[in-house]
Here is the input.
Amino acid sequence: MRDSSQLGLHESIALLALRDETGKAIGGWWKQALGGAVLAELLFAGKVGVESGKKSFVNVIDATPTGDAALDSCMKKVASSKRRAQAPSWISRFANHRDLKHLIARALCSKGVLMEDETRVLIFFKQKVYPEINPKPERDLIRRINEVALDASISPDSTTRALIAIAHAGELLKPMMDKQDWKSVKERLDAMMESDPIGYLTHKAVEAAQAAAIAAATSGGVVASTG
Here is the structure.
């Protein structure tokens, strides 16, 4: 694992997903991107393996704790599961982990990057938010992503490639790029996402989430029109 001063993939994705001033998450499929980043970190750490081929089952290799609360919480779910599941399924399960965003954000708070705060929702309810107090890590992160995205001659390392592929799958890159730059690099980013194992699997998880959302909306529309 990297040292405590460095950002993990899941922490990097969280920075891209949280609005700087309010600390609230942006729209899109950031939860699936977080799930993909967690799986990638567990792979890089040698905690799990993903079978190649159509059946991308996730297998436990080493269930000992990593020392990262978010990763260990997700690893515990994999290790305690009675049945194996494929990678997109685990990415979706991680995405739906109620405390995942908070565990990651609190780690970033401990590194002095974010601050934990509360805001009111509908007057009566409070919501935890994590506004940014040190913009440098995110600025460095965005600069690194843009350098790789805009310069085809740069060959990114495996971690940066996975970060970009996962962020693109979660639709987090477009909002941070100039419109013309986005048009020029989208095809390259698509290819990077499809060729990166976890980026591809995250994309599959996003597609499944999109299909489920459409099905739920359609079902709701049918119920509303017949009820």
User: Anything to note?
Assistant: The first helix runs from residue 9 to 17. The radius of gyration is 18 Å.
